[in-house]
Description:
Alpha-Beta Plaits, 52% helix
Amino acid sequence: MSALGARFRGVATWQVTLGVALLLLGFLIAAQVRSEGPRVRYTSQERTPLVATALDLQAQQEALKAQLLSIRGEIQTLEQQGQGGAAVTGKLNDQLQAARLASGLVALQGPGLVIQLTDSSAAVPADGNARDYLVGGADVLAVVRSLWLAGAEGIAVNGERVVVSSAIIDIGGSVLVNSAYLAPPYQIAAIGPADLFDKLVRVPGFVDFVKTRAQTFGVGVSYATPASVDLPAYAGSVTLRYGKPAPMPEPSVVAP
């Protein structure tokens, strides 16, 4: 017993301390490993379904992205088609407006001239005809025709628009234009090029008219070139009772 005690007393203090420390460290490591085991197993067990869920959500997200891109493509296609349709509609509207302008259904404004015809103030000879000294439908019609030949784009007589279907005839002491009875003096307004009057005086029919009516019978023929001429729109009916559009010819197919 004394020999054993002497042996213990022969062990250095630092060796004892180190042994105790190592023993305690072993206990701590064992406890740590024992506590980490369940947590590692728990994490390993839960990781698989979480990864699967994440992958599923990612697949759904990719599908939604693809659907969104597809919808955007369809919208872009529809927008392009809409732009094309708008362009076609605009072109048709332009053609319709041009047709209305040409047919006199739209009021016009532009450069031109105004010619006024007044009854003659000369005394009627005893053997003369008083009607020759008055302005009639034939006089108005002659000036209108001459203006068309000179390049007029639109004409009105005393505010009554002249179109292709307009009739200009004598009714008693007045002139009937379309369905309006007009009384003298007659102002014939026309829109056309800046040199409309210069072209008008070179039209043979107008020259003959002036010589016959103005120089022979004294019918007054005067003109003015205002800065702007206003023509009203045609207010009559454009309904056709007998005519109808002719069928469009089918496009010919050229054999290869």
